[in-house]
Amino acid sequence: MPELPEVEALVQDLRGRLVGRAISRVDLTAFSALKTFDPPLHALHGTLVDDVTRHGKFLDIDASGVHVVIHLARAGWIRWRDEVPALPARPNPKNPLAARVVIDDPDLDVQPGLDITEAGTKKGLAIYVVRDPQQVEGVARLGPDPLSDDFTIEVLRQILEAEGRKQVKGVMRMQSIIAGIGNAYSDEILHAARMSPFKPANSLDETDLQTLYDAIRTTLGDAVARASGLAASELKGEKKSNLAVHGRTGQACPVCGDIVREVSFADSSLQYCATCQTGGKPLADRRMSKLLK
């Protein structure tokens, strides 16, 4: 699932490609992906792209005051095309294309555009066409952005104290508490902080708090810096090649050399290093926040 660093890199890439250019049309091929009806999709036709921004994991294309807000979910992605077919895209259950934004550029003999795609059979990609991004419920309830100046160590302290005995990994993944961090980067942040994913949120002392805060800012900031300037087609590979523990079950921890371990849940899993994070004790691989005795 694209998280804050990848979405931020997509924003930078698309901003350079789209700002100042007109949207010729939008072809919707997965009708379930469009979650709004007012303004209608055709309200985008003939608009000029003013900016591309991000709200947590949500991508926001501002076109003459009409916003296309996109949540890529687990398997969504955006692909730039230097040339799109002249004929409108049509629904095809075998094609991952969900929507296509066609750009009108009078300086080109062809029409470029971007394809919004979603792989797999479990569909979660969402497209909203709104006058104000705050009309999207998921955007309106977002917590603070962990890379913003407003996200101070005191803000993090208040968040953790308010969440009580909840596991720190779960707290970081909840978008209404902290925006933009998902399963992968929560694993990476906790590994960098040398902290158990099952540690209760309100149990951190001052040293732990500072360590976690620094790990959040550094891990995400470094990922954004690495991804900056990359085309959308390069982002997935860049992310995967720089992960220390997430998705690396059974491989060696790059810090200590211990084997990366996994805890599996019904629809997700987490990865961690026991030596770095839990005092050498493997976590129980079940839905219980207890260490194996």
UniProtKB/TrEMBL annotation:
Q: Does the keyword ATP-binding apply?
A: no
Q: Which residues cross the membrane?
A: none
What EC numbers are recorded for this enzyme? 3.2.2.23, 4.2.99.18
Q: Which GO terms describe its molecular function?
A: 8-oxo-7,8-dihydroguanine DNA N-glycosylase activity; class I DNA-(apurinic or apyrimidinic site) endonuclease activity; damaged DNA binding; zinc ion binding
Domain Formamidopyrimidine-DNA glycosylase catalytic spans what residues? 2-93
Q: Which Pfam families match?
A: Fapy_DNA_glyco, H2TH, zf-FPG_IleRS
Alphabetically ordered keywords of this record: DNA damage, DNA repair, DNA-binding, Glycosidase, Hydrolase, Lyase, Metal-binding, Multifunctional enzyme, Zinc, Zinc-finger
- UniProt cofactor(s): Zn(2+)
The biological process GO terms on file are:
base-excision repair
The family database entries (InterPro entries) matched by this protein are listed as:
FPG_cat (IPR012319), FPG_N (IPR035937), H2TH_FPG (IPR015886), Ribosomal_uS13-like_H2TH (IPR010979), Znf_DNA_glyclase/AP_lyase (IPR000214), Znf_FPG/IleRS (IPR010663)
Catalytic activity annotation: Hydrolysis of DNA containing ring-opened 7-methylguanine residues, releasing 2,6-diamino-4-hydroxy-5-(N-methyl)formamidopyrimidine
- Domain FPG-type: start-end pairs: 244-278
Family (UniProt): Belongs to the FPG family.
Q: What is this protein called?
A: Formamidopyrimidine-DNA glycosylase
Organism in which the protein naturally occurs: Nocardioides cavernae
